[in-house]
Write a structure and sequence with these properties.
Number of strands: 10
Distance between the termini: 23 Å
Helix content: 10-25%
Radius of gyration: 17 Å
Structural class: alpha+beta
Bound molecules: 2-oxoglutaric acid, fe (ii) ion
Length: 165
């Protein structure tokens, strides 16, 4: 089903790989703030290691669920480009990070982004008469230009490219 050439075209360059280290200081008003507000990661896979403090949550069936730290475990998040290229078969999860008032927290995430000039579309093998494209194709830079507007509208940028069904 997966077309290696399409994956290679979008993710083939090592340039857009990033390691991000998030440091969340202890916060006296932890109940009133986020470490990171709710969002979906935008790239391909995001591989995350968190320390033993905890604070990552995912939205599951309309409820925020804590992802408890487990020694030696990595968390793998699906980014919106995979949601797009899989024509919605793989869903990117909404997640957020909380802070706490007593301890700082660290997380390390390896992101693999598509390059800005890539044209991204649902994989041709996954688009059929019975399963039409759920998203309009876009250049990654155009998708990224929607970040601010999506944040204001409280949803993810991919929604701007959803086909009306
Ligand atoms: O720190 C975390 O647990 C999550 C970080 C995150 O979602 C991100 O950097 O995109
Ligand atoms: Fe994230």
């Amino acid at each position: 089903m997966v077309d290696d050439e399409e994956v290679e075209r979008v993710f083939g360059s090592i340039d857009p790989a990033r390691l991000r280290i998030n440091h969340y200081p202890a916060c006296p008003i932890a109940d009133l703030t986020y470490g990171l507000p709710p969002h979906k990661d935008y790239g391909g896979l995001a591989i995350l290691h968190q320390d033993d403090v905890g604070g990552l949550e995912i939205l599951k069936d309309g409820h925020w669920v804590a992802v408890e730290p487990e020694k030696g475990c990595l968390i793998v998040n699906i980014g919106e480009m995979i949601q797009m290229m899989s024509n919605g078969k793989y869903q990117s999860v909404l997640h957020r990070s909380l802070v706490n008032s007593s301890q700082p927290r660290l997380s390390f995430i390896f992101f693999h982004f598509p390059s800005d000039d890539s044209l991204v579309a649902p994989m041709s093998k996954l688009v059929t008469k019975d399963s039409p494209a759920k998203y309009r194709s876009f250049y990654v830079k155009d998708y990224k230009s929607m970040f601010a507007m999506a944040m204001k509208a409280n949803h993810s940028p991919l929604l701007f490219f959803k086909e009306s069904s």
